[in-house]
Amino acid sequence: MAKVTAQDVNKLRKSTGAGMMDCKNALVEAEGDFDKAVDILRKKGQKVAAKRADRDTSEGAAIAKVNDDNTKGAIISLNCETDFVAKNDDFVALANKFAAIALNCNSKEEFLNADFGGMTVAEKLIEQTGVIGEKLEIGGFELISGAFVGSYIHVGNKIASLTALSSNDEGADVVAKDVSMQVAAMGATTLSYKDFDPAFVASETEARIAVIEKDNIELGRLGKTLKNIPTFISRSQLSDEVIEQTKTKLKEELKAEGKPEAIWDRILPGKLERFISDNTTLDHELCLLDQNFIKDEKVTVAEYVKSLGDVTVSSFKRVSLV
Questions:
Q1: Which residues span the domain enclosing 140?
Q2: What's this model's pTM, rounded to 2 decimal places?
Q3: How far apart are CA 139 and CA 307, in angstroms?
Q4: Secondary structure (DSSP) of 86-138
Q5: What φ, ψ does residue 272 adopt, rounded to 5°?
Q6: The pLDDT value given to residue 28
Q7: I need a surface site. Which of 72, 95, 153, 194 has the fewest CB within 10 A?
Q8: Are residues 129 and 88 in the same domain?
Q9: How far apart are CA 44 and CA 129, in angstroms?
Q10: Greater confidence, 49 or 36?
């Protein structure tokens, strides 16, 4: 029987991340052959992975990385079964290593086949499944590029986001981080209302009206104030014709209230702005540029970005485990 030294065990442990006893047993079984011991640990991982294939991996760590010249970013989520594992320092370190590799890939498939210390990323996942004893997999995988890319990782590594800007001028780092924080916090799914599919907006409008009408039945039964049923939910529905009709209606209301026509021009902008706000709830929820900026809710994200110079948000990505 080959002699297995503590140095051999430690070397295998550093290479694979497996526990001391698992490494020692693998080396003993391999009669001191390091490569064979690695293969033994990998096969153990395959067995564990097969047994846990149907397990849910809703926990994990979402990590965003940006390259040195801030022109490309990647987000991956390394998913596991329990929050206990997700918070482990070694697990988070592994997620960071994976994210760094993802930066040099162009697809999830290429990433899973990329080299990780002599094995592929996919093989490393299987190996670590055996080491940790939980199913591991790559959940989210996103890539982004632009003139300047910034990132944000929410405390606890549950949400990570990336923002690409059209310019790398002075202040781009601040804007990219602020907007990435907005993306993480508010969960936008599209850049602007201009990107909406009209069919989606129509369907969502119908669904929201149905929910409010149902709520109003119960509110009416209880004698409570009914909710306002919206006519529109997105700026994409507010055509020039709709805006003009609204202005006319508002003027009629001002006249009925006895407001002097001389002051209408001072009152109308605020009322029109309120009308637009009340009828663009979908935009506020899903469109990044149309959301109120979390650091100053008096302005939208678009207005915040515009105030900092000739720069626009070209795209963004978000991965969440919550």
A1: 59-186
A2: 0.81
A3: 36
A4: HT-HHHHHHHHHHHHHHTT-SSHHHHHTSEETTEEHHHHHHHHHHHHSS--EE
A5: -70, -40
A6: 83
A7: 194
A8: yes
A9: 9
A10: 36
